[in-house]
Write a structure and sequence with these properties.
- 2 copies of one chain form a homodimer.
- Chain A is 31% helix and 40% strand.
- Chain A is α+β, with helices and mostly antiparallel strands.
- Chain A has one domain: Nuclear Transport Factor 2, Chain: A, CATH 3.10.450.
- In chain A, strands 1, 2, 3, 4, 5, 6, 7 and 8 form an 8-stranded mixed sheet that branches.
- In chain A, a hairpin with a 2-residue loop joins strand 5 and strand 6.
- The radius of gyration of chain A is 13 Å and the shape is globular.
- The interface between A and B is medium-sized, with 30 and 30 residues.
């Protein structure tokens, strides 16, 4: 999977929040994907559980702003961003891993209470 | 492991490059640690192999500058930074995972050729 294709998925991920379109989330994740957000919490397993999770975040009005370049390596991409919600900003790093068909099969989000601000 | 302790390890990691002190690397990694830099390449396994790897980078004059906040989650910390070497800058995201004694037992570095600049 080329870096440009991985970066395009990151851009579609940002677009899903911008346009409040969970259909994009359904399209970029594999059926059997696992989302751990934040790392250390109970993972969301499978596309339906994942879409329900994102409906919550997108429904709450969250937007994403990239705060650095996407780093592509192996079957993965890592990227730093800020989640912006009414009255709250949160610094996050996500790591996507892709399967052979170019779908995300693992997402890990790194953030903690220290990363929240106004 | 508290977030402040994880962040202190990140700061010591930066210091290891600043002061060209591989002794710090030997102190913050576990004996059986695995370093995959970049992700997708053959990992360096065990403290001796890891120190040899870092001696190369540190000996080449590499310095690290954090480019965002460290994100602590679960047993891990992820942080964005730039590697600065003569004539080259490289955007990287590292993920450290810690064992129960507070040593790094897994390091994954995310970067690709697209992340290099002058």
């Amino acid at each position: 999977m080329d870096s440009k294709d991985k970066i395009a998925v990151v851009e579609r991920y940002v677009e899903a929040f911008d346009t409040a379109d969970v259909g994009i989330i359904r399209d970029i994740y594999a059926d059997n994907a696992v989302v751990e957000d934040p790392v250390g919490s109970e993972p969301h397993r499978g596309l339906d559980a994942i879409c329900t999770f994102y409906e919550g975040a997108i429904g709450a009005g969250a937007k994403l702003v990239l705060t650095g370049t996407a780093r592509c390596a192996g079957n993965a991409v890592a990227f730093p961003f800020q989640v912006i919600m009414p009255g709250m900003k949160l610094d996050v790093i996500d790591v996507f891993e892709f399967d052979d068909s170019g779908k995300i099969n693992s997402m890990k989000a790194y953030w903690g209470p220290e990363n929240a601000g106004e």
